[in-house]
């Protein structure tokens, strides 16, 4: 699909709701789309043993959110370096903003470039489905590609389909840390949704699987931004 106007999309959803999977599927369908996942950015920093990575790893391992200003700086810097702070740019954010304060900081920055978000979609997946999914989740850290042993297994067990590199289990996908992340999500969601609802750009798509959610998400994008 080609877009008739620039799309700047935020995917909201509990950890394990399939934001990464929906992102990969949208990227395949919409050639001009780019994406940034705040969690992937942080995991890269941890892997590279950078200064921000060393700060991030203790927050991540406890399932706690990093400070709002630090996160905003990391993501906005990345948008800038990628050349996406322009009114013509089309991109998708996954995992940031996660609090209404982050949303305000981002909005102020984007306003300066006339590149504000213009669609926010909440992925609404039942909690029972999410908990089951997490146990089977594996990731390829360098690309952020996500696999599920049940629904979306890699072609070769334990290996990324594209690079053949090893897949890993996220250290924060344990029952204990995951429970905290889910609580964290629930406690910050309402004000964040209110922030975007007030801007008139919030939509919700519901479903139990990524196969059910994706056509709904894609239709929504097509209806609002697509040509064909
Ligand atoms: P995710 O991959 O989106 O589940 O993020 C993994 C972890 O990275 C979270 O549990 C947080 O510790 C941290 N993180 C990611 N995005 C943010 C954000 N927008 N604000 C604060 N912390 C974040």
Radius of gyration, rounded?
17 Å
Total tally of structural domains = 1
Distance between the termini: 6 Å
Number of strands: 7
- The sequence of SSEs as H and E is EHEHHHEHEHEEHEH
Classify the secondary structure makeup into a structural class: alpha/beta
Description:
- Helices cover 48% and strands 14% of the residues.
- The protein has helices spanning 19-29, 38-47, 51-62, 68-81, 100-112, 127-135, 175-198, 210-225, and strands at 8-13, 34-37, 91-94, 119-124, 137-140, 145-148, 202-206.
- The model has no long low-confidence stretch (mean pLDDT 94).
- It has 228 residues and is of the alpha/beta class.
- The protein has a single domain, classed as Rossmann fold, CATH 3.40.50.
- The protein has 8 helices and 7 strands, in the order E-H-E-H-H-H-E-H-E-H-E-E-H-E-H.
- Helix 1 (19-29) packs across helix 8 and helix 4 runs parallel beside helix 5 (100-112).
- 32% of the residues are buried.
- A 5-stranded parallel β-sheet has the order 2-3-1-4-7, sandwiched between helices. The protein has a two-stranded antiparallel ribbon with strand order 5-6.
- Bound molecules: adenosine monophosphate.
- Residues 15, 38-39, 42, 59-60, 63-66, 71, 95-96, 98, 102, 172, 181 line the site of adenosine monophosphate.
- Adenosine monophosphate (AMP) is lined by residues 15, 38-39, 42, 59-60, 63-66, 71, 95-96, 98, 102, 172, 181.
- Residues 137-172 form the Adenylate kinase active site lid domain.
């Amino acid at each position: 699909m080609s877009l008739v106007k620039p799309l700047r999309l935020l995917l909201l959803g509990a950890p394990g709701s399939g934001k990464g999977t929906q992102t990969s599927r949208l990227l395949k369908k919409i050639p001009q789309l780019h994406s940034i996942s705040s969690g992937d950015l942080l995991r890269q920093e941890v892997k590279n043993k950078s200064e921000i990575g060393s700060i991030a790893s203790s927050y991540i391992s406890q399932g706690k959110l990093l400070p709002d200003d630090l996160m905003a700086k990391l993501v906005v810097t990345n948008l800038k370096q990628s050349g996406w702070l322009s009114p013509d740019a089309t991109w998708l954010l996954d995992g940031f903003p996660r609090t209404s304060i982050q949303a305000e900081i981002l909005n102020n920055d984007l306003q300066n470039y006339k590149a504000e978000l213009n669609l926010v979609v909440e992925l609404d997946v039942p909690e029972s489905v999410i908990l089951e999914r997490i146990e089977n989740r594996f990731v390829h850290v360098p690309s952020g590609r996500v696999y599920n042993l049940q629904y979306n297994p890699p072609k070769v067990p334990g290996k990324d389909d594209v690079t053949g590199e090893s897949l890993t289990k996220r250290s924060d996908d344990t029952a204990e840390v995951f429970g905290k992340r889910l609580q964290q999500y629930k406690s910050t969601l309402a004000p964040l949704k209110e922030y975007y609802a007030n801007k008139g750009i919030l939509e919700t798509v519901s479903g139990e699987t990524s196969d059910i959610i994706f056509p709904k998400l894609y239709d929504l994008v097509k209806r609002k931004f697509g040509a064909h």
